[in-house]
Amino acid sequence: AQKVTQAQTEISVVEKEDVTLDCVYETRDTTYYLFWYKQPPSGELVFLIRRNSFDEQNEISGRYSWNFQKSTSSFNFTITASQVVDSAVYFCALSEASGGGFQKLVFGTGTRLLVSP
Amino acid sequence: GAGVSQTPSNKVTEKGKYVELRCDPISGHTALYWYRQSLGQGPEFLIYFQGTGAADDSGLPNDRFFAVRPEGSVSTLKIQRTERGDSAVYLCASSLRGETFYEQYFGPGTRLTVT
User: Fold this and answer.
1) Chain A contact for B100, CB < 8 A?
2) pLDDT digits (tens), chain A, 117 positions
3) Is B109 within 8 Å of A44 when comparing Cβ atoms?
4) Omega into B8 within 30° of 0, i.e. cis?
5) Alpha-carbon distance A96 to A94, whole Å?
């Protein structure tokens, strides 16, 4: 069975600090996808990134970066120079690679990030 | 363009009542998903539609839950004989269909409270 663990329930930082959100996953599939979503107080899930299991290159997008390590089954997310607007709940998710574009997402329990001024 | 919309945004009902939750996907998206998010938890998959048919309903918790998508666009999630444990935010997502992955776009959710 697939499982995603986000051990950090809540993290509090002061603006401009760097912060890393941890994600550990379990799957028996050799081909799978990993995701990060942001859920601001408004409640709507916002897609941040998708990674497939064959691509272990780290990715950087502005202040966001992701570190995918298959050897440790981890897909960690770092926000550099955090801002108050980054305050939200962040979810890591996993999906098997099935045909026909069907992607059933398995989510972790989320990490609440609080960035104070 | 317009995103995924869900109505109502909030629904309070008494235990034992019947409720319907509506989802309007992004125009042109053939795939539609329902998830349920309990307090302090991540969303959990309920059901997936490809067009009009439910391609995977393995996440529906029991036979009190049912969903339809009669014309391949709007979907309705129906819950019979509601229980207090059904209280949660029900999220809908839609995506394009294809041989490769397409991003799921989520709606704002319907917060269901069963008293």
Assistant:
1) yes
2) 889 999 999 999 999 999 999 999 999 988 899 999 999 988 889 999 988 888 888 888 899 999 999 999 999 999 999 999 999 999 999 988 665 566 789 999 999 999 999
3) yes
4) yes
5) 7
